[in-house]
Amino acid sequence: MSKARLLIVEDDVDIANMLRLFFKSQGYEVEVAMRGSEALEKTRQGLPHLLVLDIMLPDIDGYEVCRALRTNTRTSHIPILFLTQKDERSDKLKGLELGADDYITKPFDIEELKLRVQNALARAERESLTDPQSGLPSGRLIEDQLRKIIRQSDWAFMDIRINYFDAFRDVYGLIAANDVVRFTAMLLSEVVDEVGTPSDFIGHAGGDNFVIFTTSQAAPRLKERLKQRFAEAVLSHYNFIDRQQGFILAPGRGGEMIKTPFMSLAIGYVTPAMQPFTDIREITEVAAEERRRDALLAAG
């Protein structure tokens, strides 16, 4: 997988710095939070792939942080590894009952902690819980949400894809393209916070394809705001010359260089008011058709 993002939640400055430096040396992206409330805010701003979470924190304890993450649709999938001085069986059981993935007691062996982190990340990827690029829910978790909403009366399923993403990757390379994927994941989260609902679910179906589960009322404004925000912010991923000329030159199917527009979002969504759905495949197929129609309209 690409660089996994770890969030270390630890109020002991020495331990926090030691863990930050160690895991950075192992190739991870690492952020540190000294308080539980800060950890929840950082998680909301950008999903980490895993939390190393101390239980004894100065504001809310690690149990409360874990409970908040597990009860939020958008963060319930993130692996959590408790790090604590407590060694009582009851404390371990409480953490595991809340949904923690593992538990290690201070003082700890740093190599053992590294292996536990690696195992938790590998398990999440193997079980199709998270996309390795974005850290968003993927695979099975998206399917679980589809099975959940089909039994409800008010929902909207949004299928989102990045137009001209392949051309951008051909010109700017894989690393720049991966940056666009991570940027898009963060943008979706920001816009859902802005105009969506607290229970909205954001998923990454793979590559340049994302999904949002929301309400039928929120879907139209989410679509409009996502397109607007993406069009404004994506320009920063292009160099000055391309921004000035308003397009990029990308190789066509025959190898010739053709003018290609900047990336944009194609978004299609479906609600139960449009037609009755009896199978989750119908939901995804109709949403994909709506998304393709949206792409054609944008292409003019």
Automatic annotation (TrEMBL):
Domain of life the protein comes from = Bacteria
Entries under InterPro entries matching the protein: CheY-like_superfamily, GGDEF_dom, Nucleotide_cyclase, Rev_trsase/Diguanyl_cyclase, Sig_transdc_resp-reg_receiver, WalR-like
In this protein, which residues make up the domain named GGDEF? Answer: 153-300
Task: Note the PROSITE patterns from the entry.
Answer: GGDEF, RESPONSE_REGULATORY
Q: Which GO terms describe its cellular component?
A: cytosol; protein-DNA complex
Q: Name one Pfam family in it.
A: Response_reg
> SMART domains this protein is in?
GGDEF, REC
Where 4-aspartylphosphate occurs, the residues are: 54
- The protein here is known as Diguanylate cyclase
What is the organism field in this record? Answer: Thermanaerothrix daxensis
Residue ranges constituting the Response regulatory domain according to the UniProt record:
5-121
Q: Which SUPFAM superfamilies is this protein grouped with? A: CheY-like, Nucleotide cyclase
Q: Which GO terms describe its molecular function?
A: phosphorelay response regulator activity; transcription cis-regulatory region binding
